[in-house]
Amino acid sequence: MSKKLLVIAAVGFAALVAALVLHLLQRQLPAALQPSPAPPAERQPQVEAPLQAEAGERPTEQPRPLIVATIEAGEGGRVLVNGTEAAEWSSTSPFTLVLEAVPEGCVRFERWEVNGTAALGQNPLALAVAGNTTVRAVFAEVPRGARFRVVVTSNSSKALAAAFVNGSLVVLPHEVVAPACAVLNVTSYPYGGLKPLNGTVLVLVTGDTEVKLHYRLVHPQVYEAVAVINGTLQPVEVRTSPFGSYYYTLRAGEDGWLHFKGAALLYIYIPWSYTRVLVEARVVEGSLRVIRFCDWGAQPYDSYGVFLNERRPRVEFIGCEVAPQYGEPSIKAGGARYAHMAPGALELYASGEAWVRIQAYP
User: How far is 306 from 140, CA to CA, in rounded Å?
Assistant: First the structure.
């Protein structure tokens, strides 16, 4: 036992001496020969975890791509885009453009081309844009020597409207056949109860065209008419002359008598096939003149008529002439014929108040 302890003690002492010697040797070595310390470990960047959307919140949307519409005008005109001359329109959402091709000079609009493909010829055009789009207006020269129809109409449904077309007063609707590139001067004409809203319109003729004039009713007028047609009470069309200022009411009674009050030049349309027309009148005050128009081209006069009053309360027309038993006609009207002076029409020129009844037979 004493030998084992002695050996263990000797070994421990030797290890202690070896450690002490190694320590002293390390202190005496140059710094360059000393082992380098291990480099510190790189610090990895911390990645923040994405924030979780709170309950009820939507995640952030990615920006939408831009939709761009490019508008081009071919030679001979320009394009209005939503009322402006913008050459480009863009949005992140689909949109609609209202395109209007405006020819300049004696050219006409032909068609739209969308992304190089011929599209509709409608003008103006409402175009839905959902992706990048290029729109081009194509114009073409008007063939020289061509002739086109120009129809002038109005928004007046009952009363006749009128206008000056190149200085001539005409009843609407009115049609003109004009050469290509001609310019028509169309001016609304005011008359009783109607006020023009357009003024003067210059029309460059590049194709068949409709020009619609607008009027506003300033003085409301009431007019309705009936006649005894072959023994049966029937409604008939009535219009006011476009040439003058008239204010009146015309109402139909159950017995066929029309009550008139005011001042007007009226046209009541009885079919020309009813050759015999009897007009009776009870004039309360003022005067009443009655004319019936002949067939187109009748000679020597277009129409015949009489004044009705207490002494002559009725008149009968056979065709457009006054029947012999009612004496000679007091009016023989000739001259220009307008569309509202159609064959068979009765013209009533009245001022004051009167009751009138019309009976027509084959």
Answer: 58
